[in-house]
Amino acid sequence: MAELITAHSVRATPEGLLWEPSPRWVRGRRGESTVVDSRHPVLVWEPGVPVPLYAFPRREVREDLLRPAVNPPVGTHTGSRVFYDLAVEGELLENAAWTFPAEDLAGHIAFEWFTRTGRGLDHWYEEEEEIFVHPRDPHKRVDALPGSRHVQVAIDGTVVADTRRPVLLFETGLPTRYYIPREDVRLDLFRPTDHRTGCPYKGTATYWSWTGAADVPPHVVWSYPAPLPAVAAIAGLLAFYNEAVDLTVDGESLERPVTPFTHTLWSRPAH
Fold it and tell me: Taking 80 as the threshold, does the pLDDT of residue 80 lie above it?
């Protein structure tokens, strides 16, 4: 197989991987050192993982910075054949890179993203824009639409938000999120936390936790103070996890959805 894949279609491998070429120019850095500079990246979806990652042709990777892994993990990244430690700027980052066993991806190397796993490369760029946590999925859409629906949020019978001017955020694979102006939220019933998360579609979120006695997961409310331009309409507005509160929209009570967050919300540290 040629090292540079050019056909633009999603393909499956016998190992259960899905992959397709990306036309984006992608660079990955650790500190000030550029480790990846690729105009021929490949997007890879692993079985059971909802978000993609990138793999890169070897010739577009600083292989001189890679060392055979001293303590390679077992059973990760779809039974990967080879793991590498990354020696850069005086650090040795264990298992920062690997190759997939799939013949289709022979000659390609993938890297961990620091903001997602706590190790690996800590700055990533698509073209000239920095991206966070994981690559954007070309098959996923995120739309933020101003609305006039009547949205109420309740916790343990207490109405904590009531608005007729929400912004509805539609994100492929997730329930509709209702972003509410601060003036329409009882923020006196919540406390700000140090929790922060990053999203490649929306930006960096800040959080609040419920101060009442009800069994509510920490960081149940969030906001994007400076969202990415594509979802600028949600700037400074507040959203609640549908999975953990009672939502009523135009008089209709919504069922709590089951999502990838359902089983992880209560396990997060409360700080």
Answer: no
Distance CA 265, CA 37 (A): 36
CA 177 to chain centre: 16
* Residue in this structure with the two tokens 């009882």, named with its chain if needed: 186
Interval 158-177: pLDDT, tens: 999 999 999 999 999 899 99
Residue whose tokens read 């040629």: 2
What kind of fold does domain 11-131 have according to CATH?
Answer: 2.170.150
Q: Do domains 11-131 and 142-267 have the same CATH topology?
A: yes
Is residue 173 within 8 Å of 167, Cβ to Cβ?
no
Task: Please state the length of the chain.
Answer: 271
Average pLDDT (48-61) is 94
Q: How far apart are the first and last CA of the chain?
A: 50
Give the span between the Cα atoms of 51 and 131, in whole angstroms. 14
pTM of the model: 0.83
User: What residue ranges in 1-49 does DSSP mark as E strands?
Assistant: 11-12, 18-21, 26-30, 33-38, 42-45
Q: What is the mean pLDDT of residues 235-255?
A: 97
Q: Report the topology of domain 142-267.
A: 2.170.150
Q: Between β-strands 91-99 and 108-111, what pairing exists: parallel, antiparallel or unpaired?
A: antiparallel
DSSP lists the bridge partners of residue 68 as: 84
* Strand order through the sheet with 203-210: 190-199, 203-210, 221-223, 238-240
Task: Give 3-state DSSP helix, strand, coil % of the chain, rounded to 5.
Answer: 10, 45, 45
Tokens of 203: 């930006």
C-alpha 204/C-alpha 220 separation (Å) is 15
pLDDT score of 268: 82
Summarised one tens digit per residue, pLDDT across range 123-151 is 999 999 988 889 999 999 999 999 999 99
The residues spanned by each domain of the chain are 11-131, 142-267
